[in-house]
Amino acid sequence: MIVFIARRLVISFFVLLAATFIIFVLTALSGDPLEDLRQDNSPNKANKIADRTERMELDVPIPVRYLGWLGRIVRGELGVNRDGQDVAPLLGHALSATLQLVLAATVLAIVVGIVVGIVSALRQYSGFDYSVTFAAFVCFSLPIFWIAVMLKQYMAIEFNNWLKDPGIPPTVIGVLTLLGGLIFGALTVGDRKRRLLAFLAGAAISGALFTLLSVTRWFADPGFGLPLVLAISLAAAVGFTVLSAGLRQRGPLYAALAAALIGAVASQVLAPMLVDPTWLEIIGLALVTVVVCVGLGYGLGGFQRRQAITASVLTGLFTGAVIFLDHMLQAFASYSKVVRGRPISTIGARTPNFAGDFWQLNLDSAGHLLLPSMALILVSLATYTRYSRASMLEVMNQDYVRTARAKGLPERTVVVKHAFRNGLIPVTTLMAFDFAGVIGGAVVTENVFGWQGMGNLFIKGLREVDPAPVMAFFIVTGTAIVVFNMIADILYAYLDPRIRLS
Amino acid sequence: MTTPNVPIEPRKGDVHTYDIAPNVLDASGEVHVGLTLDAVRPPSEEEILKVDNLTVEFPTDDGVVRAVRGVSYSLREREVLGIVGESGSGKSVSSLAVMGLLPKSARVKGQILFRGDDMLKMSARKQRSLRGRKIAMVFQDPMTALNPVHTVGDQLAEAVLAHELMPRKSALARAKEMLDLVGIPQAEARLRSYPHEFSGGMRQRAMIAMAVINNPDIIIADEPTTALDVTVQAQILEKLLEVKDAVNAAIVLITHDLGVIAGMAHRVLVMYAGRPVEVGETDPVFEEPRMPYTAGLLGSIPSLENSGDRLRPIKGTPPSLINMPAGCPFSPRCPLADDTCRTAEPELAETDSGGHFAACHHWDRLAAVEDPTVFFRTESETKA
Amino acid sequence: MTLNAQATEPGTPSDSQGMAIVARTQSQMVRRRFFRHRAALVGMIMFGFVIVLAFSSIGFAGIPGWWDKTYLDTGPLTNQGKPTLSLIPEFLGGTGIHLGEHPFGQDDIGIDYFALTMRGAQQSIIIAFVVGIVATLTGAVVGALAGYFRGRLEAVLMRLTDVMITIPVLVIAAVVGRMMGDSGALVLGVFLGLVTWPTLGRLVRGEFLSLREKEFVEAARAIGTRPSRIIFRHILPNTIGVIIVSATLGIASAVLLESALSFLGLGIQAPDTSLGQLISRYRSAMVVRPWLFWWPGMFIIMIALSINFIGDGLRDAFDPRQTRVRA
């Protein structure tokens, strides 16, 4: 395995090297870097031109310029742009914001896309399947910048306006109720009566939920509170148990329920610590959660120890996430006051000069990330959905799935254990391609939302035919893509033993 | 001995011949297996499976495919029932119906009684509890029937854990026993192997181990040797018999290889175009076929006994299951066919005592000659 | 993907007795499945409509169209440039179905926005098709050669695609756009095609790798058929499904790629226009004059969506697994 990774690393390094050469040469050839100066009418025009020519080494051949750039990179210098500014500090600002955006979008797209794709495959030819397919096609066909501008208008400006008095008008509640019913109905298989019942149940639940949210003005000061956190986690515990072990034996269920319960209690006990934690503490808590849950699963799992551990760890982490979300939501009201009631931002990656506690800072970046991620995610989401749907359909027709059924395994085990893992294998190869696509999308999205991010660095550098910032952008994104590619490869090898051993 | 001898699946438009491995046939035309049917415990009189008037239809874009049109048979304890037919004759579909493994789009009618209980009317849960525990299946292609991402031990143990509550360790111990039983060396270590580390024959052995791990009453083997090397085929069949005897199970053996049936099955059911056309004890059916199709099949087998003779293949192709011709479905290819055959489909009727049934208007004409394959004489033979 | 030509051999004795399956050639089956695909049909109609509208209205390449305004001439601003298109009949309380003077409105300097949008649609469609064709031809040829001859060519292709994975398409396209943006739609399309082919090349290579081992290829080799004939007569027709589907989807994504480039100012340069450029130019008008933003957006979506639908229909049509029944 280590040999495998090492070999991949070496190959990736050379691939990246080749790519930098291509980009450098093409950028240098893409136009006239002195264009603006040639139209200059100031008396020191000749001086300026000579200055820039020297700074950008325009009098040496491009490959030589590339070698010079490469030499500087090896020494850890990113060089200067055509105006003599050092590129490194420019990059520094842009880096974290862009990577945050890209990673958030990718992870979300992978998780949601795969889940939706699989459900869609398992419910082939249902209303849900058709709707998902149609939605995916629309997503494939939406220009990312267009949807970004739309989101800015409707999700930010009008949503912020609405938050001043967050009551949901009855007509909207009506529409949401209908929608909830339709989703429930579409997900149900069976005769018309069953689907109708599901529709009514879904409609009733969503109708009640949104009415409640409206009447209590929940959006003005959101949050769950302990009872709701507990209820959500316990429901999740049951859900994860059903998925991983089934309810035939009690062991895994008890382990998962205990994980949810302990999580909820811990949130109260640890309340002082959670007032203003650091990321390090949060990660530490997550690790503790995993350890405790493994213990729970091991102790309570009985004959189904493995499945119990899976169920309780998933439940534990989910409960942690719910508690995290709860704290974020509770910081919402105070944060909203600080930003004068406009929590969903349309410009930049963070509010300038904003200072607050851990939760408010997170809320601030979340508020800035929300819309760009939504715009960015659509294509990837559609891709992952379509791909995992197709992959799952293919796998469900394989002989080994029939064998699994022939053993008398419950459908849950057939899907989760036999089909799911095989279905994921082709999806991993998609990850590398898609990640590059997301970075391309990020360039566009940042442009719409006015982020001073990597994309901006790239576009500005390209317009000015200035390789240094373009290359700085590419070094970072290219490395990110290579790393991501490698993660995909390792995941592939982990999922498919045939690759692992060869 | 490198003659490629894997029976070729007939394609539409091909002149269909059955070919079996000459090197596993001895002079008497039986398959050379170390363990013969006579050496294992005989069947009892108790009927464990009864299939009654089973029909299976698939709606497709081109029309309804009538894959199985009224199949009835019964299976006694410890009995080996052979089902023969070309691909598309409904033999696989009917056994998948018994397992409850047909795709959701299939429309299944009739009765499948396991020890008197109709499996088609059972709850899904009850049906599942029979599947793999009482009725197990060995599939055709061991290359694709095992999940590539899980270890063999895991896939075997899982079959036990699906029906019994026990620690994983005990299930793995049972899995090891089974691998020993089917003759996989170093079973303990092999539990941790992945399917791709096994050869084809070993995988099929593992599949057999998986089928018998819960001591089933019935093993359905769907062309278990078709995808294997000729040399391995005989071993696998022998192992199947041995294992069947060890767990006291009955076997439904589906194949298009008549040689296999001759050596392995107590009784045989010949299927054509979704229907049984001849049923009976193996020997009488093969020695005195009462349906021209069976006779035709026998005429297309090469054997050492009459190695100098020409083969007598059946001409034409099986009918489309969507637009079934009127009358006997075999009539367009049948040398005996007359106007009656082309208008009325014959029922399965008793032709000889001892449970020998055939569906043919003219079975008496077959009975009247010494060698019934004579009707399938080729033109060159007729001239000579 | 296997493409079974399910033609029965003519002249088998059973034919005369009406027993054989109705013989269909592969292209007949593909056509049948395609036209049964409802979304693909809708896509075809929608796409046909856009093409006819875009090219017949303002004319193309010197041939005049039926619309009397051009995308370059300004005119007096009427009614603040609001669209005059009306689709609500009078009896429903609207103003009747008519186009009016400026159906899509006017931009801030009085150019007819319908003409402008049509010009943008023309440019976007031309670029998308040129990109699709260039990328498909290059990808198919390189993929075929690499997959058939293996060796050095294959190594080069594989490394090249590795490199291309590391460079986001938008990035390399932006660089190309910066270079070629002012040389017109055709040139830009050709160059964009030249940087987007490796995905298809890899796909075709994969198909070739598996097909070159098939018996029919071996048979052709055994009787001494020339490699060029084997590649183009024996193997390529079997990969045509993969190529056509991927070309279609490539065209759809080229529409979006071009508009994204134009949006970033790296595509077609003014005074010529494209749909992405229109959106970019008027994005701040979203609040005041939303139609300047809506129309080009609608056309991009219509073009991309219809081509995607057609591609999906083709995929289903070429992939017989959809209707296969295990018997």
UniProtKB/TrEMBL annotation, chain A:
Membrane-crossing segments per the record: 9-29, 99-122, 134-155, 167-189, 196-220, 226-246, 253-273, 279-301, 308-325, 369-387, 427-450, 470-495
Pfam families to which the protein is assigned, alphabetical: BPD_transp_1
Membrane topology reported for the UniProt record: Multi-pass membrane protein
UniProt cross-references to Gene3D superfamilies, sorted A to Z: MetI-like
Keywords tagged on the record: Cell membrane, Membrane, Transmembrane, Transmembrane helix, Transport
Domain of life: Bacteria
Organism listed in the record: Streptosporangium minutum
One Gene Ontology cellular component annotation held by this UniProt entry: plasma membrane
Entry keyword annotation includes Transferase: no
Principal subcellular localisation of the protein: membrane
Record protein name field: ABC transporter permease
Alphabetical GO biological process terms: transmembrane transport
Intracellular or extracellular location(s): Cell membrane
Limits of the ABC transmembrane type-1 domain: 95-492
Family: Belongs to the binding-protein-dependent transport system permease family.
From TrEMBL, chain C:
Subcellular localization: Cell membrane
A UniProt-annotated Pfam family: OppC_N
PROSITE patterns: ABC_TM1 (PS50928)
InterPro entries: BP-dependent_transpt_permease, MetI-like, MetI-like_sf, OppC_N
GO cellular component, one term: plasma membrane
Key words, A-Z: Cell membrane, Membrane, Transmembrane, Transmembrane helix, Transport
Main location: membrane
Topology versus the membrane: Multi-pass membrane protein
Domain ABC transmembrane type-1: 121-311
SUPFAM superfamilies: MetI-like
UniProt GO BP: transmembrane transport
TM spans (from-to): 39-67, 125-149, 156-177, 183-204, 235-257, 291-311
PANTHER family per UniProt: D,D-DIPEPTIDE TRANSPORT SYSTEM PERMEASE PROTEIN DDPC-RELATED, OLIGOPEPTIDE TRANSPORT SYSTEM PERMEASE PROTEIN APPC
Family the entry assigns: Belongs to the binding-protein-dependent transport system permease family.
UniProt-recorded name of the protein: ABC transporter permease
Naturally occurring in which organism (per UniProt): Streptosporangium minutum
Lineage of the species this protein comes from: Bacteria, Bacillati, Actinomycetota, Actinomycetes, Streptosporangiales
